[in-house]
Amino acid sequence: MGNKLNLSMQGQRGMGYWGWLLALALLGFALTCVSKMAPAYVDARYVNEGLKTLGQNPNLENMTSGQIKKELGRFFLINNVRGEPTKSVQVVRGAKSTVVSINYELRQPLMYNVDVVMKFNKQLDTAKPELCCDALIDLEQFRKRD
Fold it and tell me: Which residues contact 34 (CB under 8 A, 6 or more apart)?
């Protein structure tokens, strides 16, 4: 019985040096990924909010492309959204609706020569403002159709 107890105690020693080292390395990698990628997703959230706010504007159909871009630019300035989302605003007018599209790609260096590529494609179709922010339409097909 003493031998079984001794074997049982050895199996319950806990993590050793290599186990802790591996756990800390995985935790460090996860924190590095989160710290590098989180700002892009925060900006994407503000892009969603900006498009939803724009979709609630009753005069959206009467606004020019420049006015729409200026309105979104003001929202982005207030919420500190910079870079690709602000540069990639497209307004495509059709016979029945207007599509405001923000389609961009961010490349974030992760470590050494490894990069993370994040793609965002947000759209607001004035014909369906309740479906805001999901990419529903291929803009090239939309241009050809209308």
Answer: none
Backbone torsion region of residue 31, taken as left when φ is above 0, otherwise alpha when ψ lies between -120 and 50, otherwise beta: alpha
Label residues 86-103 b or e (16+ Cβ within 10 Å = b).
Answer: bebbebbeeeebbbbbbb
Distance of CA 101 to the CA centre of its chain: 14
Q: Model confidence over 71-121: pLDDT tens digits?
A: 999 999 999 998 888 899 999 888 788 889 999 999 999 988 999 999 999
85 contacts 104 by C-beta, under 8 angstroms? yes
* Model pTM score: 0.77
Separation of alpha carbons 85 and 105, rounded Å: 9
Ranges of H-type helices in the chain: 2-11, 17-55, 65-78, 84-87, 139-145
In DSSP terms, 139 is beta-bridged to none
